[in-house]
Amino acid sequence: MNLKITILILVLIIQGSLTYAQNNTSSPYSGFGIGELEMSSGGRNSAMGQTGIALRSNLFLNLGNPASLTAIERQSFLFDIGVNMEYTNLANSSKSVDVIDGNLSWVQMGFPISKKLFGGLSINPRSSVGYNVYTTNTIDGTLTPYSSLYEGTGGLSEASGLLALKVSPYISLGVKAGYLWGNVAQTINQSVTIFSTSYTLIQEDNISYSGGYVNLGTQISIPVTKKASFVLGGVAGLTSRLNSETSTTITKTYESSSEVMASDVKSNNSMKLPIDLGGGISFLYGPKWVASFDFKQSNWENASLNISSRKLSTNSSYRGGLEFAPKNDPSLFRNVARYRIGYRYDSGYLKLYNNEIHEQAATFGVGLPIKKGRSYANVSFEVGSRGTKQSGLVKENFVKLNCSFSLWENWFSKRQYD
């Protein structure tokens, strides 16, 4: 078996076990909606501000637009796996805490089916829930204090299949059909002490999600000169629904005795997710320069989730990126590496106390060739912030490291014998 594939399988096994053992977020904002949304478009995209709507490459997968699969060369196979680790400082007006999280980012592959038809498969986290919030209040009409501990873990995963059609040398169409599933455990622990006697009320909600979706994409290449060209891209995520089932258990504790007040009480709900619309443009100059810009909007105001609609807003995303590859001379290592920078801003889909929970980050990274071949090890960093300290909310400053392997194999050629 090819050495790269052997290493890849080992990484998959290791990361598969980590996926179940570690959350991918510690943000208190992940307790709203379906959690903190993940970005899983590819190793190259991560360093270029998470752009991808108009990016094309025969070496790097880009699942930000399914139409990009038509850039894969015939008789080739692309495989991409990524992992991440994030350091976050969470602070409000009075306290600060540091946390470290990490998980599998994505596993994806792309391949030609025929001369004009291309396919792909992907599995990755779609959202993450991981929070631990402690508050103290007083019982209405009294000075008696009580404490509340809110905890949540889990999230949604995504598996998808992609098809892309090369309508002409310059026009490509794509479709991505996916399935979402996952579990979220949420616990509210409230306790009060009255005349030296402790009372505790614990509510445990286990929510199971499942549902499908369909996304469409297109890319149009516009040659300008022999070396320069533009690519225009567009994506549309059709509205979809998530089915959810909640199982609730409520337990009351008085001194040393416990009483289950309600157990395994099930309720079903259907959650409408928003339509996503996005456009992008990229400029290519030979094999050296690639510049890209994306705009995307998701109208969460018209979505129906398990939180008040007053907390939802339209999420507008602006992203830009640049890749530079010096003169392609394989004899010099630095001349085959690819250097990347970018920036992204997301207004966020949450509005709490009239404050938008926006997010912004600067990105940079490098793609390093593996044994002077067509495979790359990609390393990227994100340095950014999320939220605000206003109105008693939490400001998050984070540094995120993403490592991925983009593996190219010639799997479809026939052996020739003399």
Description:
The chain has 418 residues and is mainly beta. The protein has a single domain, classed as Porin, CATH 2.40.160.60. 6% of the residues lie in helices and 61% in strands. It has helices at residues 3-21, 43-47, and strands spanning 36-37, 77-91, 96-112, 117-138, 145-166, 171-194, 197-223, 228-237, 240-254, 257-273, 276-285, 289-299, 314-324, 338-346, 351-352, 355-356, 359-369, 376-387, 395-409. The strands form two sheets. Strands 2-3-4-5-6-7-8-11-12-13-14-17-18-19 form a 14-stranded antiparallel β-barrel. A two-stranded antiparallel sheet has the order 15-16. It is elongated. It starts with a helix and ends in a 9-residue tail after the last strand.
Question: Gist?
Answer:
This protein is mainly beta.
Mean pLDDT: 85
Task: Choose one word for the global shape.
Answer: elongated
By helix and strand content, what is the structural category? Answer: mainly beta
Q: Strand order across the biggest sheet? A: 2-3-4-5-6-7-8-11-12-13-14-17-18-19
Q: How many separate helices?
A: 2
List segments where confidence is low: pLDDT < 50 over at least 5 consecutive residues.
17-22
Total number of β-strand segments? 19
CATH classification class: Mainly Beta
> What is the alpha-carbon Rg in Å?
24 Å
Strand content: over 45%
Main β sheet profile: 14 strands, antiparallel, barrel
For the termini, the CA-CA separation is: 24 Å
Helix content: under 10%
Helix/strand order, N-terminal first: HEHEEEEEEEEEEEEEEEEEE
CATH architecture: Beta Barrel
Supply the CATH superfamily name: Outer membrane protein transport protein (OMPP1/FadL/TodX)
CATH topology: Porin
Tally of structural domains: 1
